[in-house]
Amino acid sequence: MSAKGKNRSPTSMEKCSKCNKAGNPADKKLSITCDCCKDLLCGDCHGLSPTEIRVFELKTVARVVTFLCADCRSTMTPLPSILKKLNDLTDEVQQLRLRQNMMATEAAVHELTERKYRAQNIIVYDIPESTSENIQEKKKHDSEEVAKLIRGVCNIDCSKAKMFRLGAPKSADAPPRPLKVILKSKSEALAVLRNKGKLSKPGSIKADLTPLQREYLKYLREELDKRISSGEKDVTIKYIQGQPKIVKNKILSNSQKNC
Ligand SMILES: [Zn+2]
Ligand SMILES: [Zn+2]
């Protein structure tokens, strides 16, 4: 028997879903069930002509013609345009995903390039700025001061290193602007960073990190604080193969470290 709506004599138990009248088995007008919502409609309410209702008397299992009540018909009418909109939206989502992937890849490539470029730099803080008006004298002053600082850290000749102050010039009483120092290679920068603990103020030399690296380091520091305040001991941030990680001190003794 087909699951589709069928016409039949109403039973006395059934009520029409539209007029709410109880069925009359003697009724010549057959009731019919909507193929969509399965509501029963009496002969007065389904609105089918005698010819039309004969279609539903066909004894075929695979009846193609379906009966829809007025409510279902009005719901179904906008369906094609809804489906079209759905298709358009699906296309749009796919395009957006593709674009998002492309942007993420571009951002990753840019980040890697930027990290590679910055790997040979160091940022030096707290070197007073020259009060000279002469640019060459200012540069000479910075170069000499940086060379003096680095000599106290490791044996690297940075007399020819390029360097410049970060940010726009400030008033004379403002704190000195940091200096970006471009060394010859990444290994020189690493040597300075690994040995900066020899300075009385190790914080005066830092790695030249990208904004993303700084953000990640900030996140790691917050995580470390949380773990320490929840009672965890012997944890710290160390650079392992160039990447900052939260590690247990005892693990450090067994692993390669190059901070
Ligand atoms: Zn009715
Ligand atoms: Zn219906």
Question: What does the model show?
Answer:
Residues 79-106 form a coiled coil. InterPro entries: Znf_FYVE_PHD, Znf_RING/FYVE/PHD. Residues 1-20 are annotated as: Disordered. With 259 residues, the chain is an alpha+beta fold. The protein folds into four domains: 1-76, Herpes Virus-1; 78-118; 120-208, 2-Layer Sandwich (Alpha-Beta Plaits); 210-259, no CATH class. Helices cover 40% and strands 13% of the residues. The protein is built from seven helices and nine strands, in the order βββαααβαββαβαββα. The chain has helices at 50-55, 70-76, 79-118, 135-151, 186-195, 211-229, 249-252; strands at 7-8, 31-33, 40-41, 121-124, 162-165, 179-182, 205-207, 235-240, 243-248. The strands form three sheets. It has a four-stranded antiparallel sheet with strand order 5-6-4-7. Strands 1-2-3 form a three-stranded antiparallel sheet, with no helix packed on it. A two-stranded antiparallel sheet has the order 8-9. The chain starts with 6 loop residues before the first strand and ends in a 7-residue tail after the last helix. One zinc ion binds at residues 34, 36-37, 39, 68-69, 71-72.
Strand count, sense and barrel status of the largest sheet are: 4 strands, antiparallel
CATH topology of the largest domain: Alpha-Beta Plaits
**Helix-strand topology string:** EEEHHHEHEEHEHEEH
Task: Identify every distinct bound molecule in the structure, by name, code or SMILES.
Answer: zinc ion
Q: Going by CATH, what is the homologous superfamily of the largest domain?
A: L1 transposable element, RRM domain
Stretches where pLDDT is under 50 for at least 5 consecutive residues are 252-259
What count of helical segments does DSSP give? Answer: 7
Judged by helices, strands and strand pairing, the structural class is alpha+beta
Shape type: rod-shaped
Strand content: 5-15%
Mean pLDDT figure? 86
Report, as a whole number of angstroms, the end-to-end distance.
Answer: 78 Å
